Structure formats: C-alpha cells, structure tokens
C-alpha cells in the first residue's frame, strides 16, 4: 500500500517484516523485532512484487525471494533464542481456561505441549523415573486437583523442571519453579505455607474439604497466566534467567487486587528413623 506520495510500503510475505521505499529509490526493512535495516540497491517495483500486484522482472523477483529468505532465517533464529528447540518437550497438567490459555501461548511460541488431565494420568502413561520431558507444568482449580503432585516432586532430580500454579478459592498462587533436586517441591511448599499460617490446623482442614470454585475472573486469570509464562520464558532462557523464580512463591488476591511474593527455601528431607536391632544376650 502507498503510505504517502514519497514512500511505498509492503509486507514481506510469510514474515513479520515490512519494506519501506523512499521516492529516491532508497529503502529499508523493519524486522519483526523492531529493527530497521537498510536495503542495498532495492530494485524499482519491489513493493508491488512483494504485494503480488505485479510480476516485475526476473531481477526483482530474485531480490524479493532472497530478501524473504534472509528475513525468515532471522525470524527462525529469534524463535530459537526465544525458546530453544532443546527445551520444547513440554507437558501441561490440568483442565480449564488457564490451561487452555497456556496451551495457546505455547503454540504461538512454537511449542506444542502434550496434555494430561492430572498427575494420575501422567503417571499412568509413564513412570517418574522415565519421564521424557523437559518441563511439566501443572495447574489446579482446587487443592483436590493437586492430588499426586507430591509424586512428581522427584522430577527435577531426573532432569525435568516442575512448574506449578493453582488457586484456593479466588486466591491464585505460582510456586517456586523446581529445576534441580535442591529446589522446593510441591509438598515442601505446602508444608512451608502450613507452618507460616496462624491457624495451620484450620488451614489444612479447609484445604482437605475445599471444592472447585466458579470460573476465575478474567483479570485474575490474565495475571496468573502471565506469571506462569514469565517463569517459563526465564526457564527457557537458562539457569541464570530463572534463578530468582526458584525461591519465590507468587500470590494474587483478587479481593484486594494485591500481588505479593514470598521467599520459599527448600529444606533437607527428614531422616528416616531406623529401629535398632534387638540386643541378643
């Protein structure tokens, strides 16, 4: 399309880039990541050829093809940097709109997750000792939906990152991401929260009796999904980027519209008591 009498613009097909040609024939391209690159010897009629409104000569067609190939290569490099191919074996656990939002976002980033309804379904498909995934992402609408999560706490020690999000009533949480065996798992986070509660017995009783609430409001769902995606991108970018998320419990309270973060540190598992052998006389 023609923006004004001095410039001609055209999208580069199959890419997120746009070409801009000045009246004097000089041109540049704005790439999908917002960079501006000067075109060398842009041939006359290039915008029309890119738009498909004219064939142009062989030289223009070759120039347009090479330009598109170069831009596609750049965008593929960006996709690899955004989410490396070596980390695209992803599992989603759970049901509902939060899981659907996460699945859609992952697909936009070139990741096609494998879906399981819950931990039991995943464990029925494969043993924890042989889970062939880079990351498992769990979401639950109620404490009951987190049944079996403690059985997945061994995943980080076997090379699979374990990401968890959930709600309790209207309150939303994202656990610290567990990337190594030294990171707090779901059971450790649960116990830490019980220990920090002023009414631990009542809190535990409520969790055991709680059922699923109604649909999560859009604002709460958006903030929750955004937090999970931020954690996942940091994980995809490597250990340094994800470090701060490994010790932070994120919490959102819709009733007061407050977001808070709480440090959660792992603790050594309790020693197993061993009965002493009876002394023989």
Task: Walk me through this protein's architecture.
By secondary structure, the protein is an alpha/beta fold. It is built from eight helices and eleven strands. The protein has helices at residues 46-51, 58-82, 97-108, 119-125, 186-196, 200-209, 218-236, 239-242; strands spanning 7-11, 18-22, 27-30, 36-39, 90-93, 114-116, 135-140, 161-168, 171-174, 248-253, 258-263. It has a seven-stranded mixed beta sheet. The protein has a four-stranded antiparallel beta sheet with strand order 1-2-3-4. Helix 5 crosses helix 6 (200-209). It starts with 6 loop residues before the first strand and ends in an 18-residue tail after the last strand.
Secondary-structure map:
Blueprint: E1 7-11, E2 18-22, E3 27-30, E4 36-39, H1 46-51, H2 58-82, E5 90-93, H3 97-108, E6 114-116, H4 119-125, E7 135-140, E8 161-168, E9 171-174, H5 186-196, H6 200-209, H7 218-236, H8 239-242, E10 248-253, E11 258-263
Parallel strand pairs: 5-6, 5-7, 7-8
Antiparallel strand pairs: 1-2, 2-3, 3-4, 8-9, 9-10, 10-11
